[in-house]
Amino acid sequence: MIHIAIVDDHALVRAGLRQYLAEQADFRVVAEAASGNEVLELLRRGDVDVIVMDIAMPGHSGIDALAAIRARAPTLPVLILSGFPEAHYATTLLRLGASGYLNKDCEPEEIVLAIRTVQRGRRYISAGVAEQLAEGLAGNAGPAGDQAPHKQLSERELQVFLRLARGETIGHIADSLSLSVKTVSTYRSRVMDKLQLASNSDLTYYAMKRGLIQ
C-alpha cells in the first residue's frame, strides 16, 4: 500500500485528486494540507510514502516546502503537480530535489504512473521534460547563453527571487526563511546581477513574462 499526502491550497483540487486516487487498490490518501506551512506537520506523522504537492500556495510556497522536506526527509519522494507549464519549472524543481513534475492538465493515468514510479525511488520525467533536459545537455556542450537566466539561480536565490517578484518585503522574507535582513539583501543583489535587472518591479515583470508567477 502506498500512503499519499496531498498538498494543495484548493480544497476542490484535493477532493478530486483524493477521490481519483482512492480508485487505485494500492493507494491510500492518509493526509492533506492546504499550505506549505503545514508540510512539516505531515513529516512528523511519519506514515507518508509520497507527497503530491502544488508549488503556488500562500505562505511558504511549494519551493520553500520542498527545501524543508529535503532538509528533514531527504529520501521522501515529492511529486510536484502544478498549474504552471513544465517548460517554466520542471527542470528547476528536479534540480532542487523534486522526484517528478507534472502539469495539472496531464492525463489522470499519468499521475498514477508517476506516483508509483517515485515511490520506487526513481525520478518521473515526462516526455516534455526529457526533451528539455536533452536540450539543456546539448546547450551545455555548445555555446553558452541559451539557458534562461533564472535557471542559473541557486535554490535560495530562486526562493528570494520569487518572493520579491510577488511583492514581499525583504523584512518579511527574512522572517519567513529565518534569515537576517542583511543575508536576504545579499541574495537580492546576486539575483539582480545574474538576471541583469535593476529593481523589484523588473523582477516582477521578468517573473510574470516567463510564467513564474501569476
Descriptive report:
This protein has 2 domains: 132 residues, Rossmann fold (3-Layer(aba) Sandwich); 61 residues, Arc Repressor Mutant, subunit A, CATH 1.10.10.10. It is an alpha/beta fold and 214 residues long. The termini are far apart. The chain has a 5-stranded parallel sheet with strand order 2-1-3-4-5, sandwiched between helices. Helix 4 crosses helix 6 and helix 8 packs across helix 9. The protein is 51% helix and 12% strand. It is built from 10 helices and 5 strands; from the N terminus they run βαβαβαβαβαααααα. The protein is globular, with a radius of gyration of 17 Å.
Task: Itemize the secondary structure elements and their pairings.
Layout: E1 2-7, H1 11-21, E2 27-33, H2 39-45, E3 50-53, H3 62-72, E4 78-82, H4 86-95, E5 100-103, H5 108-119, H6 127-141, H7 155-165, H8 170-177, H9 181-195, H10 200-209
Parallel strand pairs: 1-2, 1-3, 3-4, 4-5
Helix pairs in contact: 4-6, 7-9, 7-10, 8-9
* Overall CATH class of the largest domain: Alpha Beta
Mean pLDDT: 85
The biggest sheet amounts to:
5 strands, parallel
Through-space gap between termini: 37 Å
Total strands? 5
**Count of discrete domains:** 2
Q: How much is the radius of gyration in Å?
A: 17 Å
Structural class by helix and strand composition: alpha/beta
- Reported by name, the CATH topology of the largest domain is Rossmann fold
Shape descriptor reads globular
Continuous helix count: 10
Q: Strand portion, in percent?
A: 5-15%
> Per CATH, which architecture of the largest domain?
3-Layer(aba) Sandwich
Spatial sequence of strands, sheet with the most strands: 2-1-3-4-5
User: Helix share of residues?
Assistant: 40-55%
